[in-house]
Amino acid sequence: MDILAINCGSSSVKYQLYSWDRKELIAKGVVERVVVGGSFIQQEVPGRQKYKVEHECPNHTVAMDLIIRTLTDSEHGVINDIREISAVGHRVVHGGEQFTQSVMIDEKVLAAVKAVQHLAPLHNPPNIAGIEAMMAVLPDVPNVAIFDTAFHQSMPECAYIYPLPYYWYVRYGVRRYGFHGTSHLYVSKRAAVLLGKKPKDCNLITMHIGNGVSHTAIRNGLSVDTSMGLTPLEGAVMGTRCGDIDPAIPGFMMQIEGLSATEIDSILNKKSGILGITGKYTDRRDVVTHAEKGDKTCKLAMDIEAYRLRKYIGSYMAVLGRLDAVVFTAGVGERGWQIREMACEGLDHMGIHLDLDRNRAAVKGKECLITTDDSPIKVFVIPTDEELVFTEDVAAILDGSYTDHMNFEYSFSREDYGK
Question: Which of 47, 53, 147, 199 shows the greatest Cβ crowding within 10 Å of its Cβ?
């Protein structure tokens, strides 16, 4: 059984084809610049050179068709017939309150996803476009929705209700939802294995740090608080998003500069964060390089990000009480030893004893312990694998074994995983 995982953005479509029977990756790739022009597909197959070809994709249906044709291409493909694809798993960023786990997509589910697209206007519309496009390209293949928000539906009311007029929540669904759920799920299960415990016995802080950044407090295996809110704008400093700010600032700047609501929203989401501070960069590697060369704004951006990370670690320790481990993951969390070192600086009195050599020697793609052996609280670097969560959810839904994540055994939650 071959399962196709789709992560559909506004102008890109990432995909991965996985053999469930052989438990191995068949191919992965991305279609870039969908809708905007100059589109191309790039595909990677284990043991082969990367394959790239330009092909205009004015919409997501054309992009999906391009993916299928590339996977089945006589020279560069990996399967002979599209009928070898047994199911498709779709990342859906926002599921509202209705979805607490992955589900088979039917007309009712698709309508429910459309009903909450106003809560994630930058993400849900392309997710929906991807679902509808794949249904058109592969009409007889089951489609499954995997929700970013589902993992966080275990939060208590005191964590997800904002101190705003309560009818905003009742009438409009204004509350904290949280995102990156599949990433937090994956690394929390792996951390439990590394600790030699069951997920239900673990208290963790998981820190997903990429262009988008979110942190989650996990008590006894369940999300009890997370940094992103109604939208992915709240929380930590991100590549282009501001994260936590004084809520009066947008109105203040709208008055001063005569900005519309759409314009201020674009600034907060696309022109703030690391980019806003440096004026040039979103990639933390560029920021580190120029900070080392004396660029003051790059140094300031690193200081601000690390300071915010420490604040979240401290606040979530207060929420959890007992803490077993902190986990860094995603692009920056996995590769940015400087950010990890700065974020953990001064936390020895709280039980986090970073081993500087281990931290700097952490290898990309490897699970690493970066604290000392006697550190009361462990810190791990764990590469995330959201696509594997997609794949396992799809397979389990198809064979009827799927249930909530605390009762469903993922392959990566077993001690022998990867051996």
Answer: 147
